[in-house]
Amino acid sequence: MKLYYKPGACSLAAHIVVNEAGLPVALEQVDLANKKTADGGDYFAVSPNGYVPALAIADGDVLTEASVVVQYLADKQPQSGLMPAAGSIERYKAQQWLAFISTELHKNFGVFFKPDSTDAMKSNNKALLEKRLAYVDGQIADKTYLLGDIFSAADAYLYTVLRWAGFTGVTLPANVSRWFAAVSARPAVQKALSEEGLA
Ligand SMILES: N[C@@H](CCC(=O)N[C@@H](CS)C(=O)NCC(=O)O)C(=O)O
């Protein structure tokens, strides 16, 4: 398998899951501005929407969408506990978090990275993100990780998008800050940051 990534982008979630699960996955950095792979190839030929992450799997198949790529990777190593068993209520809870992170957080951070975003758009999204983070704060008040005591792919995805809070001016509430520090301290997370030149 090969993971196409950009340092610090949402592809970091998949990279963290790769490291947590100890999977043999090659990494290839993408030049997103020019849509080029590391060897100068056309990234659109890998991923027609031109965004990361993309995971090349067997037989030339490619998976995209961070919330799906992390599940695929986690399921390659079920004993890691990174995703609960398919069909269990815990699995749906994990998917509920992944969908929430994708649609309520990840997408709403996007405005901060677009050159044509106005200050009003950024201010609006900052307020919305902080409202959503207040919800997350309540949910994890008595938990170590999103699903309880076990680190999951949803934590990897949430950590990845909340790394952007610092440079977008979005404030993390207390329980989320505590959770963020705990995730940061995980060796697999530090390894991923280091491999992406972010440590
Ligand atoms: N729907 C995709 C969105 C992925 C996405 O927004 N990727 C960003 C980096 S975090 C990207 O590659 N942006 C470059 C672009 O869209 O040209 C997902 O959920 O994975």
Can you describe what's shown?
Helices cover 49% and strands 9% of the residues. It starts with a strand and ends with a helix. It has helices at 11-21, 43-46, 66-75, 89-109, 119-139, 153-162, 174-184, 187-195, and strands at residues 2-5, 26-31, 36-37, 54-56, 62-64. The chain has 8 helices and 5 strands, in the order βαββαββαααααα. It has 2 domains: 2-79 and 189-195, Glutaredoxin (3-Layer(aba) Sandwich), CATH 3.40.30; 83-186, Glutathione S-transferase Yfyf (Class Pi), Chain A, domain 2, CATH 1.20.1050. It is globular. A hairpin with a 4-residue loop joins β2 and β3 (36-37). 32% of the residues are buried. It has 199 residues and is of the alpha+beta class. It has a 5-stranded mixed beta sheet with strand order 3-2-1-4-5. Bound molecules: glutathione (GSH). The site of glutathione (GSH) has 10 residues, from α3.
How many E-type strands? 5
Order of helices and strands: EHEEHEEHHHHHH
The name CATH uses for the topology of the largest domain is Glutathione S-transferase Yfyf (Class Pi), Chain A, domain 2
Bound molecules: glutathione
What average pLDDT do the residues reach? Answer: 97
What is the beta-strand fraction? 5-15%
Shape descriptor reads: globular
Task: State the domain count.
Answer: 2
**Main sheet record:** 5 strands, mixed
Strands ordered across the widest β-sheet: 3-2-1-4-5
Radius of gyration: 16 Å
Helix content estimate: 40-55%
Q: Poorly predicted ranges (pLDDT <50, ≥5 residues)?
A: none
Q: Would you state the CATH class of the largest domain?
A: Mainly Alpha
The number of helical elements comes to: 8
Distance between the termini: 24 Å
